[in-house]
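Tip: read the tokens left to right.
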């Protein structure tokens, strides 16, 4: 499955259906396209969603930095879009992606690495890479 971007008029028409929250954001869930593994949730504004749908490289909106965040721009852990889906209420998107490397800033494949159990939170997976290596902060 190769992603093909829509033409500009079609993209504008599709984006007009989005229901952003009061901050101008929409929840975006990233899922590995071939395994179904849920990788992460982040936020997109109109510019991030437009860029993602135009380029096929996933771009989010960083609430803490108040700017666009192109997944992998500092870590190299890029997400290539395979398909984007809008939920029934038009207030969340599902991004089927090909994740290069790990998705989580903790060095794990998925941000959803802890399970609620009767005895507390249980870690389901260990980091695959040291976060200091991901973000070049070691040393």
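Filled-in amino acids:
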């Amino acid at each position: 499955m190769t992603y093909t971007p829509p033409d500009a008029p079609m993209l504008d028409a599709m984006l007009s259906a989005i229901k952003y929250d009061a901050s101008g954001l929409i929840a975006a869930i990233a899922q590995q396209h071939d395994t179904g593994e849920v990788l992460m949730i982040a936020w997109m504004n109109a510019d991030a969603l437009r860029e993602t749908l135009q380029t096929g490289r996933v771009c989010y909106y960083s609430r803490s930095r108040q700017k666009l965040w192109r997944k992998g721009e500092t870590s190299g852990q890029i997400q290539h879009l395979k398909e984007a889906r809008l939920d029934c209420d038009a207030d969340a998107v599902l991004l089927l992606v090909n994740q290069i490397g790990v998705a989580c800033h903790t060095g794990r494949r998925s941000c959803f690495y802890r399970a609620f159990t009767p005895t507390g939170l249980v870690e389901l997976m260990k980091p695959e890479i040291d976060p200091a290596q991901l973000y070049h902060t070691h040393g």
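The first strand starts at residue 26 and ends at 32. The mean pLDDT is 94.
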